TrEMBL record:
This is Transglutaminase family protein. InterPro entries: Bac_transglu_N (IPR013589), Papain-like_cys_pep_sf (IPR038765), Transglutaminase-like (IPR002931). It holds the Pfam family Bact_transglu_N. It comes from the Bacteria. Residues 158-222 form the Transglutaminase-like domain.
Length: 270
């Protein structure tokens, strides 16, 4: 499947920004089931400082804001070729050992609700079957509904709310998998929707490591393993390590942010 993606983030400051750095993870991760055909990054009000691969093997572009700027636009766009791998990403690779993905983070710290969810599972030696049951249990415990959590909400808080978005489902799944001694990580990316091209935000899901298969994806919010409609951007132990855009800015001014995203399928001539 050939997908075209156009992702723009626009910042407007009420006064001139004196200094700012942004860390961009906006280049898809090539690998099993995903090839980049072309990809570009366009900036207005900022400039590239350096590009590198981080500890999670994410391609990172570090940009700085132009001094005194009021508006900054970050646009990434391109075309990728995808294939259905039944959610299987494959063997572990990169700079970090598998045990690193067993460690809790502030966003995946287990609490009493998370432990109760794990204890309710019928876990057995079939790790893949256990993970599928976990995905079902997380969705049953948390309805998909926006407006009840934010980017700082951890797994325990999301479970307490009883509802959340894809980020929350991923964090709860990851925290529970780690409690079961299964390495797990967060994935940020894009999803081709069946009913529209224009979207309000990107997507997120989780991956867990299964012996003999390697990393396997679980999109709890949609009750499916990722297929050819999914594009992986970045991975990490939680949202903070895989967020498409993070950074710092100096200047006592208000900030407004607007995001536009289009994910569409291109027809390939035979």
């Amino acid at each position: 499947m050939r997908l075209s993606i156009d992702h723009t983030t626009h910042y407007r400051f009420s006064g001139p920004a004196t200094y700012g750095l942004q860390r961009l993870r906006l280049t898809p991760k090539s690998g099993p089931g995903l090839s980049i055909l072309d990809w570009q990054l366009h900036l207005s009000g900022a400039r590239v400082q350096v590009e590198y691969d981080d500890e999670n093997a994410n391609r990172v572009t570090l940009i700085s804001l132009e001094p005194g700027v009021h508006d900054v636009t970050i646009r990434s766009e391109g075309t990728v070729e995808t294939a259905d791998q039944a959610g299987i990403v494959g063997r572990h690779a990169g700079f970090l050992p598998l045990w690193h993905f067993l460690q809790p983070t502030p966003l995946t710290q287990p609490g009493p609700r998370l432990r109760a969810l794990v204890s309710s599972l019928d876990a057995d030696d079939d790790r893949l079957a256990t993970l599928h049951r976990l995905s079902t249990a997380v969705l049953a415990a948390m309805a998909y509904e926006a407006g009840h959590t934010d980017s700082a909400t951890g797994a325990e808080g999301a479970l307490a709310a009883g509802r959340g978005v894809c980020q929350d489902h991923a964090h709860v799944f990851i925290a529970a998998a780690r409690a079961l001694k299964i390495p797990a990580r967060y994935v940020s990316g894009y999803l081709l929707m069946n009913d529209r091209v224009q979207q309000e935000a990107g997507h997120a899901w989780a991956e867990a490591h299964v012996d003999g298969l390697g990393w396997v994806g679980f999109d709890v919010a949609n009750a499916i393993c990722p297929d050819a409609r999914y594009v992986r951007l970045a991975t990490g132990r939680d949202y903070r390590e895989a967020a498409p855009t993070t950074g710092v800015r100096h200047g006592d001014h208000d900030e407004a942010m607007h995001v536009t995203l289009a994910v569409g399928q291109q027809q390939v001539e035979q």
